[in-house]
Design brief:
This protein is an all-alpha fold. It has four helices and no strands.
Length: 81
């Protein structure tokens, strides 16, 4: 069973379709059980969809800043998204 911290680190790969079948299955099983991670992945998906609508294509710097902020938020919450 995955831990919440692992879900946070793999959420972008899940949404990009870059996980193997086994990894995707493990992540989805955790998301079914954990409402915090389910909410995190849903919000992350909405964020990724909203960025291009807000002002066009996001630059690499903007994406990096968002990812850093998400990782810092994860650390401040003790790994619980």
């Amino acid at each position: 069973m995955l831990k919440c911290r692992e879900v946070v680190h793999q959420a972008d790969a899940l949404l990009a379709g870059e996980l193997s079948g086994r990894e995707r299955f493990a992540l989805r099983m955790h998301i079914i059980i954990c409402r915090h991670c389910r909410r995190y992945v849903r919000q992350f998906r909405h964020l990724l969809r909203a960025i291009p609508r807000m002002h066009g294509q996001a630059s690499e710097n903007e994406v990096r800043r968002v990812m850093t902020a998400l990782k810092n938020a994860d650390k401040s919450m003790g790994g619980q998204p």
